Amino acid sequence: MKVQNSPSRKTFKPSDIIIVLAAAIVLALALILRNASSENGSNAAVFHNGEQIALLPLTKDGVYPFDEYGVTVEVRSGKVRISESDCHDKICEKTGFISSPLQTIVCLPNRISVRLIGDKANTDSNIDVVLN
Amino acid sequence: MNIFKFKLKRTFPVFVSCLMLCACSNQTSSKPQTKEMFAFDTYVSITSYDSSVDGTQELLNALSREFSETYNKKASGFAGENYPNILECANICREWGSRFDGIFGESINFTCGALTKLWGISGENPHVPDENELSAALSTLTSEDTPFSLMPEETMLDFGASAKGFACDKVKTQLDSTNADCQIVSLGSSTLLYGQKPDGSKFRAVVKDPISPSSYLGTIATDAAFISTSGGYERYFEENGVKYEHILSPKTGMPVETDLCSVTVIAPAETENGGTYTDLLATAVYSGGTSVLREFIAQDTGFGIVAADKNNNVYVSAGVDFTLYEGSEFTLSENL
């Protein structure tokens, strides 16, 4: 025969509620922080031969010369472009500003590529590849 | 006050669980990894949902090294067994020719290396050759069916219309043998969409707007496939105000004249040599223009096509799931 709950053991104590509340607050905070960081977490990554050589925050305008690689990268209003290159075809300069993680600026002669990375990349997650 | 101190023991696991939950939610979004490199004279990106990226990168590097020797060496230097991939690619081009020359004429010829070199369109000093230079370069072209060892002394090879697609075929074979799950390999003009995405959805590939390449023409939704694109809008040079595109006619030695501005050819991933074939087809249809496009679609070859002409019409063959980009200046047309 089993004895039903003894009166001294209630299902919830006031202290349990505090714990649950604390847990909920921590979880909510964690989620808010995660989302906030994803909104501000976008950067322009500059690669040389596939190796990342710089990570430029899109939130701050700036002009970044990479003299040893022959290119200058400019960030303006959340977009990025190769503003100057010493290459012969200037395809990279002609590409202009990019603002989508799907676009890549490529300077073939200098082996440089620039693209946007960070959680903002999820906004176009429907797309898998851009054909060139 | 005492109660908090006392409950810490029970609270701690709760915090840990919260942290684990956050970590979990990060992982289950299954973000693919992207690796980039330069190979085949182009920008290459490999996106993978598993750990198969490194093997693909090594394979592409090895293939790229082999094919890059065609820039410096005469055709006869490729006879023998040291260049198995070049020989295999040449044989696929030959098969392709015997199947499609009826439609395209001989619009592609891999013995045109000297001609490509003469123009130097992708190099540092592209220039328009004079007539003597042009006829000298054209005289080095020979039938693709000639074995390398018997090709004329000055003949050079150029697999610009097939090597990248061929590389996609090779990557696919390797991924098959390693049971890879899903990978997207983009070699610029040729792309392999391999396997199935973790969420089971179709791949979506964007075709660039040929007039303003920073914008989109539309999106192709597809299962695993090979896709190749051809157009003159990115690689070209200007001399005396005239634009010279990089695709040269092996007959005239001049850049092809075409009324198309972008051609994309797609084949299911099961298609034998589908990478090489889509690469060759995209160039051949682009070079041939709308009259050739019409015949190609009519022959129902099993290859899908999306083509844009210079009058802002887009033609899509049956069976291709293509969505025109909203706001595009192009319109879908059925009157080919």
Descriptive overview:
The complex is a heterodimer of chains A (132) and B (336). Chain A is built from 2 helices and 8 strands. Chain A is α+β, with helices and mostly antiparallel strands. Chain A folds into 2 domains: 11-40; 42-124, N-utilization substance G protein NusG, insert domain (mini-chromosome maintenance (MCM) complex, domain 2, Sandwich). Chain A has a 4-stranded antiparallel beta sheet with strand order 2-1-7-6. A 3-stranded antiparallel beta sheet of chain A has the order 3-4-5. The longest helix of chain A has 27 residues, at 14-40. Residues 36-40 of chain A have low confidence and may be disordered. With 336 residues, chain B is of the alpha+beta class. Chain B has a single domain, classed as ApbE-like domains (T-fold). In chain B, the strands form 3 sheets. In chain B, strands 1-2-3-4-7-10-11-12-14 form a 9-stranded mixed beta sheet, covered by helices on one side. Mean pLDDT of chain B is 90; it is low at 24-29. Classes of the chains: A alpha+beta (132), B alpha+beta (336). The A-B interface holds A 15, 18-19, 22-23, 26-27, 30-31, 34, 47, 49-50, 88-89, 91, 95-96, 98, 102-104, 106, 108-109, 111, 113, 122, 126-132 and B 3, 7, 10-11, 14-15, 17-19, 21-22, 29, 35-38, 41-43, 45, 47, 122-125, 184, 186, 188-189, 191, 193, 197, 203-208, 213-214, 216, 219, 227, 229, 234-235, 237, 264.
